[in-house]
Design goal:
globular; 9 helices; 8-stranded parallel beta barrel; TIM Barrel; two-stranded antiparallel sheet; alpha/beta; single chain; 11 strands
């Protein structure tokens, strides 16, 4: 049950510069799973900007299941993200993996993303509470909604109320998709807690052709924004190419989201 939760003053609206998450705006975060090269990132960033997205996503540090998989460019990736922001004006969200990298990543990021694997890294969450930088907390793939909210409480109760939740799918018995995207969580969070929440249909489905319909479903359920992966050449992506939209696919998604946003009284830039 959630009615016994005692949460401190989580913000219902989080501001990232001139981008507002949790109000009447529908915020779109898009970009490659991992920063691979300057050309790849800038191509994606320009498309995000052209189509009306407000935030560029891109991983400089990548938590991979296999230690032999691409782990990211590290600080070089952060510098490329900063260059993309300088050119396009987009805000940057990127993942933080380790408490030892907080100072480094915080120099570049407008939003610090905490991934599914670190949702219950309480030592890390406490340190994030000492910052003012907005934190996007992805739901653990085996976490209940209560556990997720209490993980956010670690950040807020230690001094940082700027927490954005992100539903990215949970592990169930179903294997047809990568995870099961929990639309219940979106509707419940907005109905009972009114906290800013983003939906990530790329990780939630793992299938490019399902990203568009699940993004629209998430917005219909009350999500304040959508995070999707895009890539100039998904077949050549170093990670998650199968769930990454093409540039054309992203343009269509933005067109479709405009109509859904109108129905739920939200505005897409």
């Amino acid at each position: 049950m959630l009615n016994d939760l005692e949460l401190t003053d989580h913000k219902e609206v989080v501001k990232v510069g001139d981008v507002v998450i949790g109000d009447n705006d529908l915020v779109v975060m898009a970009g490659p799973c991992a920063v691979e090269s300057r050309e790849q990132l800038l191509t994606a960033a320009r498309e995000v900007k052209k189509c009306g997205g407000q935030i560029l996503r891109g991983g400089a540090f990548k938590p991979r299941t296999s230690p032999h998989s691409f782990q990211g460019l590290g600080e070089e990736g952060l510098k490329l993200l900063a260059e993309a922001r300088e050119e396009t004006g987009l805000k940057i969200v990127t993942e933080l993996l380790d408490a030892t990298d907080i100072e480094l990543v915080n120099q570049y990021a407008d939003i610090l993303q905490i991934g599914s694997r670190n949702m219950q890294n309480y030592a890390l969450l406490k340190k994030l509470g000492q910052l003012d930088t907005p934190v996007m907390l992805k739901r653990g793939y085996a976490a209940t909604i209560k556990e997720w909210l209490l993980a956010a409480e670690y950040v807020v109760s230690h001094g940082n109320p700027n927490v954005i939740l992100c539903e990215r799918g949970i592990r169930t018995f179903e294997t047809a998709t990568r995870y099961t995207l929990d639309l219940n969580a979106i509707a419940l969070i907005k109905a009972e807690f009114k906290l800013p929440i983003i939906i990530d249909p790329s990780h939630g489905t793992g299938k490019r052709n399902l990203v568009n319909p699940l993004a629209k479903a998430g917005v219909s359920a009350g999500a304040d924004g959508v995070m999707v992966e895009i890539h100039p050449n998904p077949e050549e992506a170093l990670c998650d190419g199968g769930q990454s939209l093409t540039m054309k696919g992203f343009s269509k998604l933005m067109h479709d989201l405009t109509g859904v946003a109108d129905v739920v009284n939200k505005k897409l830039a």
